[in-house]
Specification:
By secondary structure, the chain is of the alpha/beta class. Helix content is 43%, strand content 16%. The longest helix has 15 residues. The structure holds adenosine-5'-diphosphate (ADP). The site of adenosine-5'-diphosphate (ADP) has 17 residues, from helix 2 and helix 3.
Length: 221
């Protein structure tokens, strides 16, 4: 059982890495932003609330996020989990450390905010299956069309210049300071997110003492 947290500035590629690690280990990848967007897509009561915050680039209030955390089976999967997009502030970090055993936190850092903005504004997602694309680094084979399911590719409602700026400011003010909190607990590794996805994946496996050829986590190391 392994619980890992991926934190990082928007556009740092933490979602890509979370997918790679979770599929290597056969454990859950919990993408909190995606869970919230699924509520919006299904037009649930909660989804209507989440929409008002997300489209403005604001955090969804902690009470909803924590409630979701307490109830969601995926998040509490006994096999383990890669948490992507949680925690984002000190309240959430303390909640996590009080109730869950976290093995490791990875912080993805980019050399400049311009790179983050460029990457996010080139991001597209599939409106049907939510697969991720990027017009700079991961283009679909056919323009505006998902390689996997043929769905139409769209820009996320919060990937507008205004909402991106707000999310970056929130990241600097509320999320980035968590690095010191986890560093003090001795479970933080900083990752240079400018490297290639393959290199970063290898580095993460090394830090976690996972053999690249064997999906296995050795807790003794
Ligand atoms: P990004 O990291 O690029 O902002 P995400 O898909 O991870 O994108 O999150 C999208 C939005 O979902 C956030 O801007 C925020 O509104 C909301 N959200 C995601 N995770 C959390 C969280 N842990 N706490 C509060 N709001 C969250």
């Amino acid at each position: 059982m392994i619980k890992v947290v991926f934190m990082g500035i928007q556009g740092s590629g933490k979602g890509t890495q979370a997918r790679l690690l979770s599929s290597h280990l056969g454990i859950e990848h919990v993408n909190v932003g995606q869970i919230l967007r699924n509520h919006i897509k299904q037009n649930t009561e909660l989804g209507k609330v989440f929409k008002t915050y997300i489209e403005k680039g604001e955090f969804v209030p902690d009470k909803y996020i924590i409630d979701m955390f307490e109830k969601d089976d995926h998040i509490n999967n006994p096999l383990g989990v890669v948490l992507d997009g949680f925690p984002r502030n000190l309240v959430q970090a303390q909640f996590l450390m009080d109730g869950f055993h976290v093995h490791h936190v990875f912080l993805f850092e980019l050399e400049s905010e311009d790179i983050a903005i460029e990457r996010i504004s080139s991001r597209r997602i599939c409106s049907a299956c939510a697969a991720d694309y990027n017009l700079l680094s991961k283009k679909p084979k056919v323009e505006d069309t998902c390689d996997l399911c043929g769905g139409k590719l769209i820009q996320r409602a919060d990937d507008t210049v205004e909402a991106i700026q707000k999310r970056l400011t929130l990241y600097h003010n509320r999320t980035a300071p968590l690095a010191a909190y986890f560093e003090e607990k001795g479970i933080l590794s900083k990752i240079n997110a400018n490297h290639s996805p393959e290199e970063i994946h290898k580095q993460i496996l090394q830090i976690l003492h996972i053999d690249p050829n064997t999906p296995f986590y050795d807790k003794k190391k």
